[in-house]
Amino acid sequence: MSDDTLLEMRQITKIYPGVVALDRVDFAIRKNEVVGLVGENGAGKSVLMKIMIGLVQPDEGTIVLRGEQTALRDPLEAIKNGIGMVFQDGSLVPNLSVAENLFLCHEAAFRKSGMLSLRAMRDTARELLTQLKLHLDVDLPVAELGPAERQMVEIARLLWLSKLYGQENPVLILDEPTTVLADSERETLFETLHELKDRASIVFISHRIQEVLENCDRIVILKDGKNVTEMPAADSRLLKVEQLMVGHSFSVDRFHQDAEWRQAEKEILRVENLSKAGLFQPLSFTVGEGEIVSLIGLVGSGKEAVCRCINGLEKADTGSIFINGRKLPSGSPGAAVKAGIGHIPIDRRSEGLALMMSVAENVNLLVLNRLKTAGFLSPVREKANAQHWISECQIKTPSISTMCANLSGGNQQKTVISKWLSSRVRLLILDHPTRGVDVGAKDEIYKLIRRLAREGIGMLIMCDTLEEDIGLANRLLVMKDGRLVKEIASPPGQKPTPQDIIGLIV
Amino acid sequence: MAEAKNGEAANAQETRRRLTGKVRIPPVYVTVALLVVVGMLFYLGNQNFLSFYNLNTIISFSAILLMVALGQMCTILIGGIDLSVGGLVSFISVVFILLIKPIGYLAYPVCLLIGVIVGYINGSILTRIRIPSFIATLATGGILTSLAYIASSGAGAPRPVNLSPALYHVVDNVANGSLFTVSNVLYIGLLGLLLYYVILRFTGTGRNIFYIGSNIKMSWMSGINIVKTRNIAFMLSGLGATITGILISSIRYGGDPMVGNAYVLNSIAAVVVGGTALTGGTGGVINTVFGSVFMSMLDNGMNVVGIDQYFQQAILGAMVIIGVTLTFDRTKTPIVK
Amino acid sequence: MTEVSSKGGYLTWLRKRFPVPFAAARTWLRRFGILAQILSLAIIVAVFAIGTKGKYLSWANIQTILSLAAIPAIYAIGLHPTIILGGIDLSLQGVASLCAVFVGLLLKNQFNSNDVGLWIIPISVAIGGAAGVISGLLNTGLRIPSFIATLGMSWILYGLSVYIGKAKNVQILDERIFNAINVMVLGIPQIAILAVVITIIVQFMQNRTRFGRYMYAIGGDEVIAKQAGVKVNGIKIAVFTIAGVIYGLASLLLACRLGIATSRMGLTLLFPTITAVAVGGVALTGGIGGAKNAALGALIVTALNDGLVLMRVSPYIQQAVNGVVLIAAVALTLDRKKLGFIK
To answer: Taking CB atoms and an 8 Å limit, are C210 and A111 in contact across chains?
Structure first.
């Protein structure tokens, strides 16, 4: 280990039920350098950083900090060792002022005979912010600041804390800082980072590879929880990095490609000039019967917002949505459901299921009206419907009245899918359908998706990896920065490769 | 990130598994066990506890409590609470008696209608002014209590309103009658029980109450009409409280604007001790039946055995805390405020 | 995230129709909270001054209002930090009843030979504090939501108070205490001055100590506060304890003011105190408002009710008015983004 290695993480492994988040990953940071950490969603970047700041404990592996092996048991310990992170969602208390947030829980320096000296806090706060070229009213509640300013406040806090604990060369981790910033604000951020390099080391996580290459000294690439490689930024080229991020071509069979698929004849969904201020610009596309269309884009591309508008969870500003030729009233999930739009949400536990209720009750949720005799729910019909779908989708459950909380992730996901299938949905929106699902269940879900397509259900999907998107979809809609930039056909046998796509989205 | 969340949630479940042995003992068994144990204790204290007469009393009062408790259960199931039931019971108890003089038997349907309308108003306040149910119903409960006072005695001190003996037949033929030596109160209780059971178990709206209490976000995304279901839940609560008010006035041959005060605590206790979680989404009619019987038995038993009446409130309070501790679903709310 | 009834809600209609003044009013209400309250107070005074043809503004009436507002203000000051945390404390009725009973039995009275004199102050305060500790432990240790834990505590304590006090009305015969409570300083009731002093002390603690700021941090975002290192559980227990302590003091004052100690003393306290806190501008969602808000709120509610009495409005209509005021105050100060769906 060379002299200027500040922090080294060796062979870090972290396993969650059903998922290996990190598999013997190594990561090192040297003094006064900016390291870029890149990888797709689910590659393990966030988990690695959470371990680094003590929020999560690794199952295996060691951390060596300034030459000594350390265990970082909680974020406070990490801060005392000079390691801090600026989260994507921000971690400032909204109703406290800037000054108060800067010094939260470490105000000992400002105590004068038991009370806080507000003036000293204000003065120090202003000083700290000026060093970062930020001029603010430090008494403003943080909730009134914009995202760029809030980020600066958080960076200022981390710098101050490391000074407080006498750490010479702190490590600052920035998790996707540029996603919420405007162009000019990004420039300011990078200038600040360059200046900070003299007295800190920075880990920069971002999807925007170009930015990473331009502003980092070194770039580390993770994929599927494993190290791929690391290289000095100066020597790297965008294309090469993208290729490494995304990996080799996939095995064609993994996604059970439907060799008989033909171009859809009947249109199920038509989106015309849909836009929502701040999220996505006017765009139009269609999805046909039995067609699987994948929305591809990074965080911030606007694809999630598009789906939310189609589902009625949000009201679009302009444009219309047509299902089977009929216009959909906007902003109403009920109307969307009635029109035959289904939604497999990204977080099935909090958005997809009633965990405390049985499998049967969840499966039957949308079709209660159909399961009635003489106006009342019929237990016989409910049971029949539930059993039908349990066997159709191969949901493994001890009985139809098992509580959903007791099922595995994959079976929970299948329950959610059954709920919608039972209601004879015409268009299904799948939001990361295999997230948190183990390999075996993933396979079953892919097969299920193919079957649904064969039965004529149109699908709009967003997947965890480009491979999955390309493999499952018949057509790809590429979005970047709120715009639909390209539509690419992805018929079986003539699939584009991830490398082809990635250049379009970053 | 979602892996992290899933992992933590799964870990929480593991922890719960380790803590309770099984993932979930159906709370009904706990209540029944409690019933038997405490019943035994009371019997040891005073043999009369299990006399036919006493049991009859317990069951009658269970039936009366059950009505308001079932209504309360509906609002708790959907994730809210109804603190106005006390005020409504008082109000109806007075108004019912007052209405018998002018409109005789029509007092029954009119009062039931009033109760349902009050429930609808509660639900509407939630929807239109969008404040949490416990504040809204706290306020409406206070207003209803005031109205009960005013109805009973105008601007003077609240006093009971008595039914003139000439009109006794109106209540005797309904609540105070008996069929095969079983008081009508019991039959009415059973009918009410059946009504709530059918609504909750066999109608779409009843099922929706469970869905919403279990996961309101998912319910909304699935297109369930939350406003309508919530209104119905509160209307059911108003109905239950009304039936209780009518029954009490019938038995006493008079209305009392202070009679409802105890029912807020007792109805919540009956629901919670019976095993319906305050977080909503789990529980049911049978739970509340056992809960009501238990609370009535507790009330009666403490009197029979001679426990200081004053101590009883303390015990009731403790019961609620214990009941909530055992049934509250903590995986639903990471932060407990 | 869009809320359920995006079509309903009169406030939403108001908000859409007059977006700029509405938003400005709301920020005002939150930032310069007391400005709105002072305005309301001015309006109330004006309305009643006219309605009672000046009688409302007589020195005697003002003294009455100050004297009547002092103790509710102290209760409100006790209650509101629990709301700042994001929870609530419904136990004050039980604490008040219990303290009243002890005050009655320990001070010189007609039933027994106790005469603890000034020692009653630490005793009453300690009882309240002990109750607060238990509430705090129930909330943080057993993780029972504060509104159930404190509601249950209220019933338990009330039951205890009735058990100990046996529903007797105990007359307090201790002259010193009686006089001390009811004395006037420069024409202003001493308890009003006491209330102001307590307000200043508590507000100071909220603004200038770490403990105070951490309270607001927890109310603002508990998860983030915890991550930053705030000892959430410890602070919660401390806040409930302080609430109990203040209730103990207020209950002592109230019992002595009334001259009669009975377990029923607490029964009607909850509603007006919550109303006072809400009207003062302390948001139910937490993180906003301070002692000055609580005290002002109590003053406004008292001024309102005093005016209604002077104008001979039926006491039961008064209760209805209070109910409406409570709903309105809560509706205006609630931060709905924090609540998501209303249950």
So the answer is: yes
Q: Would you place residue C295 in the very low, low, confident or very high pLDDT band (cuts 50, 70, 90)?
A: very high
Whole-structure pTM value: 0.76
C222 within some domain: yes
CATH 3.40.50.300 fits A5-246, yes or no: yes
User: Can you give the residue ranges of every domain in chain A?
Assistant: 5-246, 252-340+426-505, 354-424
The predicted structure's pLDDT at residue A199:
85
DSSP A97: B
CATH of domain B50-327: 1.10.3470
User: Using CA of residue B330, residue B334, residue C1, residue C5, what is the dihedral sign?
Assistant: positive
Which subunits have 3 or more CB–CB pairs within 8 Å of chain C? Answer: A, B
What pLDDT score was predicted for residue B9? 38
Question: b/e map of B33-63 (b: 16 or more CB within 10 Å)?
Answer: ebbeeebeebeeeeeebeeeebeebbbbbbb
Spatial neighbors of C250 by CB under 8 A, at least 6 apart, are: C71, C74, C75, C78, C96
Q: Which amino acid is at A186?
A: R
Segments of chain A with pLDDT less than 50: 1, 249-252
Assign residue C48 the CATH number of its domain. 1.10.3470
Does C91 map to a domain? yes
Closest CA to C101 of C169, C152, C154, C155: C169
Encode pLDDT of C171-208 as tens digits. Answer: 777 777 777 777 877 778 888 999 999 999 999 999 88
In the numeric block, the tokens 């060596």 are attached to A64
Q: Mind listing the pLDDT tens digit for each residue in A340-380? A: 999 898 888 778 898 888 899 999 999 998 888 888 999 99
User: What is the spatial distance between Cα A100 and Cα C8, in angstroms, rounded to a whole number?
Assistant: 38
DSSP conformational letter for B51 = S
Contact A255, A444 (CB under 8 A): no
Predicted local confidence at residue A258, as pLDDT:
66
Of A95, A107, A313, the CB nearest to C2: A313
Parent domain of C108: 34-337
Question: CA C318, CA C14: separation in Å to the nearest integer?
Answer: 27
Task: Please check whether residue A416 is in contact with residue A407, taking contact to mean a CB–CB distance below 8 angstroms.
Answer: no
Question: Which stretch of DSSP H or E encloses residue A28?
Answer: strand A19-30
Best-predicted range by mean pLDDT (A35-49, B147-161, B206-220, C112-126): B206-220
Kind and range of the H or E run holding A172? strand A171-175
pLDDT band at C147; cut points 50, 70, 90: confident
Test C220 with A111 for CB contact under 8 angstroms: no
Tell me, what's the ipTM?
A: 0.80
Which chain A residue is nearest to residue C3, measuring alpha carbons?
A313
Domain count, chain C: 1
Indicate whether C224 pLDDT > 80. yes
How distant, in Å, are the alpha carbons of A88, A369, A380 from that of A376? 49, 9, 11
> What is the C-alpha to C-alpha distance for residues C343 and C337, in angstroms, rounded to an integer?
14
User: What tokens does B222 get?
Assistant: 């699935």
Q: Which CATH architecture has domain A252-340+426-505?
A: 3-Layer(aba) Sandwich (3.40)
Do the Cβ atoms of A315 and C2 come within 8 Å?
yes
Where do the domains of chain B lie? 50-327
Cβ-contact C81, C239 below 8 angstroms: yes
Q: What burial class does residue B307 get, using C-beta atoms within 10 Å of its C-beta: 0-12 exposed, 13-18 middle, 19+ buried?
A: middle
Tell me if A40 sits within 8 A of A466, measured CB to CB. Answer: yes
> Quick check: is C4 in a domain?
no
Do the domains at A5-246 and A252-340+426-505 have one common CATH topology? yes
Tell me the chain A residues in contact with residue B331 when contact means C-beta distances shorter than 8 Å: 405
Calculate how close chain A gets to B244, using CA atoms only, in Å. Answer: 27
Per residue in B230-259, pLDDT tens? 999 999 999 999 999 999 998 888 888 888
- Amino acid found at A342: G
